[in-house]
Design goal:
181 residues; Helix Hairpins; 3-stranded antiparallel beta sheet; 5 helices; mainly alpha
Length: 181
Amino acid sequence: MPISAFQRLFDFGSKKDDTKNVSSSDAIQRLSDVEEMLNKKQQHLESQIEQEKLTAIRYSKQGNKRGALMALKRKKKYEKTLLQLDGTLTTLETQREYLQNASTNMDVLHVMRQAANALKKTNQNLDADQVHDLMDDLAEQHGVGKIQFLDWSFFRWISLVFFSGRNCKCYFITDWNVRFV
């Protein structure tokens, strides 16, 4: 249920702590919305500064020094507000960039976690005996001549690394010898 402007202005209605369950994309969107609003306010202040400057010039030409001084004071006040607004915008931009970077990092970590789980699942049922049997089968097929296109010198330098069991032991198979690390 949307909160009306009157309720927001006078802080009526139920208070919900919406800062706990905000996703990074929602926070980035909110920051972008606030930045857009502050940019509009900045443009408005710049036009008011220009208007007060023209008013001060007009009053000084008319000989109204008091009116010109008042216009310059208002201009100075708008410039101070504009300076504060620039600092706020800089802070918001920095915060948005940090959130975007953190969101990207989380996406990368999520993909890496999925890849690690897929690798773990793939190597779950693989052990040194199976790899050794496979290599023996390949050697037999090569000896019979069924596989003539393989260069066995290439296979001598291949090291197969896989995970076995819960302890994640690494097995290196090189030159048809199995070494446990």
